[in-house]
Amino acid sequence: MGATTKRNEMVLMCTSLTYENSRGDHFLARTMDFDIDFGARIMVMPRNRVVAGDAGDYTTQYGFVGAGRLLDHEMYTDGVNECGVGIATLYFPGNVYYYDDTPADKLGIAPQDFVAWALGNAASVDDLANKVEQIALINKAANFIGAVPPLHFIISDTTGKTMLLEPQGGELALIDDPVGVMTNSPDLAWQLQNLSTYGTLTNQERPLTPLMGQPLATQGPGTGALGLPGDFTSPSRFVRTTFLKNYAAETTTIPDALNMIQHILNSVTIPKGVKLKANGQSDYTEYRGYMSLDERAYYMEPYDNQVLQRVALTDDLLDHLAEPREYPIHHQVYVQDLTPDTVSD
């Protein structure tokens, strides 16, 4: 028997996107927006593990790195594995369908364990598309939030292929995401249809047509984006991220690409205090995660330190790491002081 899981009283509002630079490096990035500080850090998972998940044990084959914590067991919200597969999970309130009990012909996985299971077992997006048919998402609470999280997932790999998992009932199946963007509810089909409302937006300055014979003074560059939504709702963030991704200048190197993604995510990053929920608590962007798929590296940018912090899946880590390893994040604000000690002629 299944159950529809709704957790509207606690909604995680995040944004994710894929990106490709001109030389073919692929990236998956996300904001983590919530009202609770998870103490997220970068964690590396070794190969060939047995994990005591919330819905029962599962095994992994591949090593991976991402935003995780070693709580009751190893848990991840996003990451990249040694095959170059990247995954992120975001809230999908009011839309998900989980089983109460594991069907006899499936492996039961709690939704909060799906990222780690998929990173540990998928060699590509296509491989994951086949393997999700073998599992069922089970109605099991995540102890650290005391609830069953309503989740959907964005998956991308080094080919640039990007798909979503929206567990809305029936057999699990991945669906194509043609724009490489995911936010929260409504579902992808609705979000793509909603884009048509903004199909006249452009990065060009719009010519003005006189009204009632009155010539109109231009408002300058940027008029092509008049009407671009600026709020923090899921549909608005989806439109804004798609628009910026579409028109952002091309980059070549990995550092330049990461810098561009930072600028795109700036438009959906939530400072503390500007987005209050009914209970008075503030959602904010706890961290931003960047998965560099071709270099098998994970970058984290915490709220209080906008310097990227990186861990890569080196051969040494993959060959010799025996237990999961957490890398605590530096949270102090970094300022590069250019003031000279002395002034010389």
Describe the structure.
By secondary structure, the protein is of the alpha+beta class. The chain has a single domain (2-185, 251-327), classed as Penicillin V Acylase, Chain A. 16% of the residues lie in helices and 29% in strands. The chain contains six helices and 20 strands. It has helices at 114-121, 125-131, 188-195, 234-247, 254-266, 315-320; strands at residues 2-5, 16-20, 26-34, 41-45, 50-53, 56-59, 64-70, 74-81, 86-91, 96-99, 107-109, 135-137, 151-156, 162-165, 174-176, 181-182, 284-292, 297-302, 309-312, 325-327. The strands form five sheets. The protein has an eight-stranded antiparallel beta sheet, covered by helices on one side. A six-stranded antiparallel beta sheet has the order 16-2-3-17-18-19. Strand 2 and strand 3 (26-34) form a beta hairpin. The chain is globular. The chain starts with a strand and ends in an 18-residue tail after the last strand. Residues 1-9 have low confidence and may be disordered.
For the termini, the CA-CA separation is 81 Å
- Reading off the top of the CATH hierarchy, the class is best stated as Alpha Beta
Q: How much of the polypeptide forms β-strand, as a percent range?
A: 25-35%
Low-confidence stretches: 1-9
Strand order of the largest sheet: 15-14-13-9-8-7-4-20
Query: Averaging pLDDT over every residue, what do you get?
Result: 93
User: Could you please say which CATH topology applies here?
Assistant: Penicillin V Acylase, Chain A
**Global shape:** globular
| Helix content, binned percent | 10-25%
Helix tally equals: 6
**Number of DSSP strand runs:** 20
- How many whole angstroms does the radius of gyration measure? 21 Å
Estimated structural class: alpha+beta
CATH superfamily: Penicillin V Acylase, Chain A
CATH architecture: 4-Layer Sandwich
Main sheet attributes: strand count, strand direction, barrel closure:
8 strands, antiparallel
Total domain modules:
1
